[in-house]
Amino acid sequence: MKKVIVLGANGQLGKTIKDLPDSGTIDFHFYSRSDLDITNKTKLETLFAYSDFDYCINCAAYTNVEGAETNTEDAFLINAEGARHIAEVCNVYHVKLIHISTDYVFDGESIEPYTTTDQTNPINQYGKSKLQGELYIQEQLNEYYIIRTSWLYALHGKNFVKTIINKIKEDSTLNITTEQVGTPTSCVDLAHFIIHLINQGIVPYGVYNFSANGSTTWYEFAKEIAKNYNSDKLEKIKTSGSFKTVAKRPKYSVFDLKKTERIYKELNTWQNSVGDLIKAYKAGKYLK
Ligand SMILES: NC(=O)c1ccc[n+]([C@@H]2O[C@H](COP(=O)([O-])OP(=O)(O)OC[C@H]3O[C@@H](n4cnc5c(N)ncnc54)[C@H](OP(=O)(O)O)[C@@H]3O)[C@@H](O)[C@H]2O)c1
Q1: Domain CATH number, residue 6
Q2: Which of 40, 33, 27, 93 is nearest to 58 (CA)?
Q3: What residues are annotated to the active site?
Q4: In a domain, 258, yes or no
Q5: What residue owns the CA closest to ligand 1's atom 43?
Q6: Which residues line ligand 1 (CB under 6 A)?
């Protein structure tokens, strides 16, 4: 049985990992922000010193992309310094780190899917803080997985799927941008991938991309949500050219998944994953 700590356990990914059926192979220990703040290295150290963890999954992050433009110090404190603290304690206590990063480490100027070795060049403070976190981890550790993912959604927390469903319920007309191209990723799929890394135990360390297969725009993503939730409302989803934001967004952030596919055969299409999540939502599995 592997002993695994999950940090940031109250976020959408952390809660999704908690939902997974018990495989009998992993002894999970969940820590929310109020249990353990990753900016407090002393607390991390005290816990790791006496816990004998095999793996640490870091789901904790400052994820407010807009907020990071003004609360830049907080974003770096959590996404960069927090990641550094975790890497340092993992190094001292020989814990393998699984850290979640983002497509926002790229500038979005590519015209083809990003590989794990492509040049990073974040264009907003959130992306810069997440990249700094990656660099600290790589400085400190050999035994790490950095998983870059994109456009996450889940039954938990705030995310695009739930926002669109709520707007459909209100019968609102929605104008959604066609300007960005990327790939939605279900936290359920990502959680299964993380479990795969732990259960396999022999996957080479390093950086991995993880999303569903395929690519789309936010507009097409919204239409797919409507199609699955209530197809009568499809015509309420309209295109809009631009979406005004404080933070710049990469206009293209599709991942090249070949490296991931070599070690993992279970990637879904993004449409199937959206369909599965909405089926679960309709079955009453919606949780805050
Ligand atoms: N959401 C996306 O679209 C997306 C896309 C690509 C990559 N990612 C990455 O995927 C990972 C998981 O994201 P998510 O969507 O699950 O994020 P989320 O729902 O915002 O959850 C992040 C969690 O981290 C916690 N946290 C914040 N500061 C902390 C601290 N100092 N110490 C401990 N915990 C702290 C938050 O606690 P509170 O609840 O108390 O605030 C929250 O529960 C993150 O690394 C994120 O950067 C996300």
Answers
A1: 3.40.50.720
A2: 33
A3: 126
A4: yes
A5: 11
A6: 7-8, 10-13, 33, 37-39, 59-63, 78, 82, 100, 102, 130, 149-152, 157
Domain that holds residue 59: 2-159+184-211+254-267
Distance CA 153, CA 160 (A): 7
| Ligand 1 centre distance from Cα of residue 62 (Å) | 6
64 CA distance to ligand 1 middle (Å): 9
Q: Whose Cα sits closest to atom 22 in ligand 1?
A: 11
- For a ligand 1 pocket test, name from 32, 33, 159 the mutation site with the most ligand atoms within 8 angstroms of its C-beta: 33
- Quick check: 28 and 165 in contact, CB under 8 A? no
What is the CA 248 to chain-centroid distance, rounded?
A: 19
pLDDT in tens, the chain (288 residues): 999 999 999 999 999 999 999 888 999 999 999 999 999 999 999 999 999 999 999 999 999 999 999 999 999 999 999 999 999 999 999 999 999 999 999 999 999 999 999 999 999 999 999 999 999 999 999 999 999 999 999 999 999 999 999 999 999 999 999 999 999 999 999 999 999 999 999 999 999 999 999 999 999 999 999 999 999 999 999 998 777 899 999 999 999 999 999 999 999 999 999 999 999 999 987 654
Q: Is 187 left (phi over 0), alpha (psi -120 to 50) or beta?
A: alpha
Rounded to whole angstroms, how far apart are CA atoms 122 and 105?
A: 5
Q: How far is the CA of 252 from the centre of ligand 1 (A)?
A: 22
**Total domains in the fold of the chain:** 1
